[in-house]
Design goal:
It is built from 18 helices and 22 strands. It is an alpha/beta fold and 469 residues long.
């Protein structure tokens, strides 16, 4: 039977490919230290990234002395280490993650259960320069854990607000430890002002990424700030879209999350998503396939091709290797019913189904239909017409990357691999770059179509595995 004629793929590719072509020459790489941009400005300034409870829980999850350590703060008041860290972060609006990472980089206080008094007294390495003597009266005034945390955090805020007063500045090239470094942002400039060599900042980067790297669930759409390309997170890899239509024919572009360079680079590059959904691809053996999501469906014959209404000019010749990255779908024959998929509505009951290859999948909520198929036309059919199709055992779920909640529960979930993963706190939601405006409120019945997966909580250490030198 006739189905909707697909758009002319080649014409759209020519119009949309330009912003994404830079991705074509990218090769797979592991997470590597990038001295030009060690952390983002947002990473440095996110002083609400951890509250007092989260800092305490983080310290308690580690083996170091700070979990129970009490000492005087900068004002001479005895406090827990977690309180001193939290207060400094809030006072100077600097991320407590920067403080925690620096405490570990300088004196290993997060993991060392038995530090020396020197380690505690000079916890942040503040005022301790190469060639400086800690007995010097001008240095000794900064001795003490509370003073170290407060003054170091104040100083980093001062660097940020007064960049012109310091040697390392954004947009300038420097030779640091024998390596040319072009500083991309003020957060990275701050790190070099604080520690003016590569090795110390490499250690900072190692620690930061071990504990605080952002992990995105499968189905996330990521875009580096200031760059045109969009990537799909899938099976621990980032897959580049080679054109705008390769993206928008599959996903809602409003779900794209802006991320920093390092957040993206931690994922190795996977196989690109080259062609828009419903592309017609021809193998070296002259077999023609219709691409539907992750599947390739061979068109049985020229007669079938013509009967559907396809245009030979829409066919793209590709290699066998390119086709090998698609799963084998059902062959399209003269008897195939909606091989591209279609939305059918019972004109009596009002029930809506997604029909593909003669199988009808119930859509149990309008919210799912609007989120997944907002560009599909709803076709009115009779009950008798619908009865021709086999009913699937399960209904359609929300596509990966969708944010949902129920009316009576404030918990927000992201759909990933068909599961709903709870975003465990507001900090995690915000740090991952999600948008409150696109959360969809659904019934409990619809939410429960998606089994519970592992929660996402960036306030817990990630123990990310990264490359080491």
């Amino acid at each position: 039977m006739k189905i909707f004629k697909i758009i002319t793929i080649l014409a759209i590719l020519n119009l949309a490919l330009t912003p994404f072509t830079f991705l074509k020459n990218r090769t797979a790489l592991a997470l590597e230290f990038y001295p030009n941009e060690i952390i983002s400005n947002t990473d440095l300034l996110d002083y609400n990234s951890m509250d007092l409870v989260a800092i305490s829980e983080f310290l308690n999850s580690q083996s170091g002395v700070l979990k129970n350590y009490r000492t005087l703060d900068v004002y001479g008041i005895e406090r827990l280490a977690a309180e001193i860290i939290y207060n400094a972060a809030q006072t100077y609006k600097i991320s407590p993650k920067w403080i925690l990472t620096t405490l570990q980089k300088e004196q290993s206080l997060i993991t060392n259960p038995s530090p020396s008094q020197y380690n505690l007294d000079w916890a942040m390495g503040y005022a301790v320069c190469d060639g400086c003597q800690v007995t010097d009266p001008q240095v000794a005034i900064y001795r003490g854990f509370g003073i170290q945390v407060d003054r170091a955090t104040w100083r980093v805020r001062y660097y940020y607000e007064n960049p012109e007063k310091f040697n390392f500045q954004v947009g300038k090239m420097y030779n640091i430890s024998g390596r040319d470094v072009l500083i991309y942002n003020q957060a990275t400039a701050n790190l070099y002002i604080y520690t003016p060599h590569i090795h110390g900042n490499y250690n900072f980067w190692l620690i930061w990424n071990r504990w605080f790297a952002k992990t995105y669930p499968d189905g996330s759409l990521l875009q580096q700030e200031g760059q045109p390309g969009v990537w799909l997170i899938e099976n621990g890899q980032r897959r580049p879209f080679w054109s705008k239509t390769a993206l928008t024919s599959r996903y809602d572009a409003s779900n794209i999350i802006k991320v920093a360079y390092n957040d993206l680079q931690r994922y190795p590059v996977g196989y690109p998503i080259k062609y828009p959904n419903y592309s017609l691809l021809k193998s070296p053996e002259n077999k023609i396939y219709l691409i539907v999501n992750q599947e390739k469906k061979q068109i049985e014959s020229d007669e079938v091709f013509r009967s559907i209404g396809y245009n030979p000019d829409e066919v793209i010749a590709v290699s066998a290797e390119e086709l090998s990255h698609y799963k084998e779908g059902r062959m399209i024959t003269l008897n195939s019913l909606y091989p591209q998929g279609a939305l059918l509505q019972d004109n009596k009951s009002g029930g809506v189904y997604y029909v593909e290859d003669g199988i009808k999948y119930p859509i149990l909520a309008k919210e799912i239909m609007l989120a997944n198929y907002k560009n599909h036309k709803l076709i009115q059919v009779s009950t008798e017409e619908l009865n021709k199709y086999v009913t699937a055992a399960t209904g359609i779920k929300f596509f990966d990357g969708t944010l949902i909640k129920t009316a009576n529960d404030p918990k927000v979930y992201v759909i990933s691999n068909g599961q709903r993963r709870w975003l465990a706190n507001e900090q995690t939601f915000n740090q991952l770059g999600y948008k409150w405006s696109i959360i969809i409120t659904v019934s409990e019945k619809v939410a429960e179509l998606h089994p519970l997966g592992q929660p996402l909580d960036l306030l817990l250490p990630t123990n990310t595995q990264i490359a080491t030198k």
